[in-house]
Amino acid sequence: MSVIRVLLVDDHDFLRISVSSLLARAGGIEVVGECADGARVLELALTRRPHVVLMDIQLPGRSGIDVARELIARHPMARVLMLTGSSDQHWLLDSRAVGAAGFLVKSGDPAVLVAAVRAVASGGSVWPDHRPTLSLS
């Protein structure tokens, strides 16, 4: 793929704007859609055809876990990278259980986010290992 297409899903405008800017500056990544809750994710995923859906776990109305579960069930090739403000172990386990391709904490290094999007787009996964760093595989 020449350009990685990303759909951003987060209820905080500041985060969406910041991540969109970060990804645009990285080169080779285009944000093809954004939404603030889980209501439009399936529609946008179908119409915008992102390679990666970068989704917050805690969304208004529906959890990102529930949205990811439905998205992956309907579109098994969907590559979902969960994003959260909490490193709570149950969110990590739930993300794995629904078939997400990775899990990142929002307080992490911005360079890791860019590398994670690239890894997930190319078929890899991003999961925290037993240390507080991320292993990209």
Automatic annotation (TrEMBL):
PROSITE patterns registered for this protein in UniProt: RESPONSE_REGULATORY
Identify residues that carry 4-aspartylphosphate. 56
Q: Which GO terms describe its molecular function?
A: DNA binding
Q: Which segments does the entry list as coiled coil?
A: none
Listed under GO biological process in this entry are: phosphorelay signal transduction system
* Pfam families, sorted: Response_reg
**Domain Response regulatory: where?**
5-121
Query: Which key words are in the record?
Result: DNA-binding, Phosphoprotein
The molecule here is called: Response regulator transcription factor
**Organism of origin:** Nakamurella flava
